[in-house]
Amino acid sequence: AAAATHKVIVGGPAGLVYTPEFVMAAVGDKVVFDFLAKNHTVTQSTLNLPCLFKAGGVKSGFRPNPENTPGKETFEVAVESLDPTWYFCAQANHCELGMVFAINPKPGQMEQFKQTAMGANSTTPAPSGTG
């Protein structure tokens, strides 16, 4: 099968969210993030530390788009594995407000990831066995 391109809107009219908040993708697919209103990031993290940059992970850096122009600021991630990968917006407290994204989350993991992100202290791992 030909590689697919999955488009994800970052911010914009929907608010502090990625739309959609996760995609199911095959190895070789691309995920293209289209940054809208204000200034956001796509920063890789882990399931248990959703608001903390994963050493060696992917990060877009800040992509300001105050004019809210679709296609002006984009960032592409190549899907290299079917394993879940986790991302967040590193702007201020956006992650703690639930601005998180995943590629290939297993059933139930997206909810766990988002709840952990919105927890009181995002730099502390969630207790094992929760979610």
Molecular structure report:
- This protein has 131 residues and is mainly beta.
- It has one domain: Cupredoxins -  blue copper proteins (Immunoglobulin-like), CATH 2.60.40.
- Helices cover 7% and strands 28% of the residues.
- The protein is built from 1 helix and 10 strands, in the order ββββββββββα.
- It has one helix at 109-117; strands at 5-10, 18-19, 22-23, 30-35, 39-40, 43-45, 63-64, 73-78, 85-88, 100-103.
- The strands form 3 sheets. It has a 4-stranded mixed β-sheet with strand order 2-1-4-8, with no helix packed on it. It has a 4-stranded mixed β-sheet with strand order 3-10-9-6, covered by helices on one side.
- The chain starts with a strand and ends in a 14-residue tail after the last helix.
- The model is unreliable at 120-131 (pLDDT under 50).
- This is Cupredoxin.
- InterPro entries: Cupredoxin, Ser-rich/MCO-related.
Residue-averaged pLDDT: 92
CATH superfamily: Cupredoxins -  blue copper proteins
Task: Please tell me the total number of domains.
Answer: 1
Helix content: under 10%
Would you give the CATH topology?
Immunoglobulin-like
Rg calc: 14 Å
What portion of the residues fall into strands of 2 or more residues? 25-35%
**From the 3D coordinates, which CATH architecture would you assign?**
Sandwich
Q: Estimate the global geometry from the Cα principal axes.
A: globular
Element order, helices and strands? EEEEEEEEEEH
How many strands? 10
Distance between the termini: 35 Å
Biggest beta sheet attributes:
4 strands, mixed
Q: Give the class-level CATH name.
A: Mainly Beta
Unreliable sequence segments: 120-131
Question: How many DSSP H or I helices?
Answer: 1
Report the structural category: mainly beta
Strand arrangement across the biggest beta sheet: 2-1-4-8
Protein name: Cupredoxin
